[in-house]
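Re: How this chain folds, sequence and tokenised backbone to follow

Filed under: protein folding, tokenised backbone structure, sequence and structure records.

Contents: The amino acid chain and a row of whole-number tokens, matched residue for residue.

Body of memo: The sequence and its backbone structure tokens, given next.
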Amino acid sequence: MAINEKVLDEILSQYPTKVKKNRKKHIIIKDPNQARQEIEANTRTIPGIITNRGCAYAGCKGVVLGPLKDVVHITHGPIGCGYYSWLTRRNKAASSDPTKNFISYCFSTDMQESDIVFGGEKKLARMIDEVMEIFKPNAITISATCPVGLIGDDLGAVAKAAEQKHGITVMHFNCEGYKGVSQSAGHHIANNTLMERVIGAGELEAAPGRYPINILGEYNIGGDSWEIERILREIGYTVLSVMTGDGSYEELKNAHVAELNLVQCHRSINYIAEMLETKYGTPWLKVNFIGIQSTIDSLRNMAIYFGDPELTRRTEEVIAKELAEVEPVMEQYKKICQGKTAFCFVGGSRGHHYQGLFAELGMETVLAGYEFAHRDDYEGRDVLPQIKLDADNKNIPELHVEPDQRRFKLKVPRERMEELKKKIPLSYYAGMMVDMKGGHVVVDDLNHYETEQFIKLLKPDIFASGIKDKYVVQKMGIPAKQLHSYDYSGPYAGFKGAVKFAEDITMSFISPTWNFITPPWKNQPILEGEIVEGGCSTC
């Protein structure tokens, strides 16, 4: 069933008038006849609505900082916050030195009631001493949780004293959960400090290989980053650092010598990409390594940027080799997936990226959205000058960078940059909505009530979202694919990752499980009516 404005009004009619007015701004039915459709995003979730969002702490420690493997990440707060962000995203990491890989540990000050009353600074200082004695990490991060912000513990003073005592970098992040409206605020806070304290702290003045790049906004969930790096290194690129999947403090210090930054997840990392361009003159290129054609397009755009015929030749060789391996396998999965529909509501850029991969399987994405996006993630970066900052956004400190007098260097002459921007998405992201078809639904900050209503109306063949809502949907008789941690599968990036994704989606469809589950709408009559005494009610 297609959704129109009348149907949408019926869904929202269950809300109080003020709530209905608010939520309608967050839902768009794509109309190709309109040059631009404006959607509300990055505003507070209405109290009482069950959202899928996380908090600023989750975005800072759980998303951006957590995957750095040679760093001990301390959660200063109750144990529940530390446990919440502990390995929930399956950020894989490998290290040649096993004593410098702390990815599987959970460090928390485990604040109790007495610590809330009398303060937790001394407890935090003792914990840092223990960490240095036992683990000897390359750096330490301290992430604040809500109680810490409320009682006013001075994390900066504790971190500074620890640096002087132990001689390593100790970074503090005032990422209390209530800062900002979602985990997006935490991304921003983490990026600011990494830019200020880590990137550029290395001694390299030139890259150690040809075509040096950084991969930004890639978190190695299920091994995605390893698959992307395999392809890039086979072509001939030098991957300096990944921010932050399987990343390290030591590698990140020298990210400033790259000649190009690749941006995979625009939402979580665009802050760093822009600051690197301002400070060191390194352009950023929007890429998407989810899906076969998207991977091909990204690799070719990278070759265009560097403009080396040998690199272009090698790129096409690797693409041809990879396609020869995966295309015959993909065909068998397409036969099962062809003609089916998907409901894709995921954080970061995944709500956009996975639509292309679904399309390659012959599937159509009828609804898509994000948990914590900003308007530019939907409408593209052209809309940035029109976005007005509200009180919540002003709560996040801004880091203003200037060109580094010693290290700033234009990687590409300005004239050529302008020519390249006409061919490839340099310093640009067109947003999700541009690729969606007319009649399809775009929803920001989808809640549980709306999820159930849209599923009943659209009856998708598969639901791609997160852990918080997958089980409810499965009980409705619809397969659910968890795209935050891949349901213990993956990788899904690159050529081989696309095959793995196709295999998992196909298994979801052919599972006999769904024969034993009756969706709620199948218990309802096809037609409803009433009997009126005396015959025809209009006589």
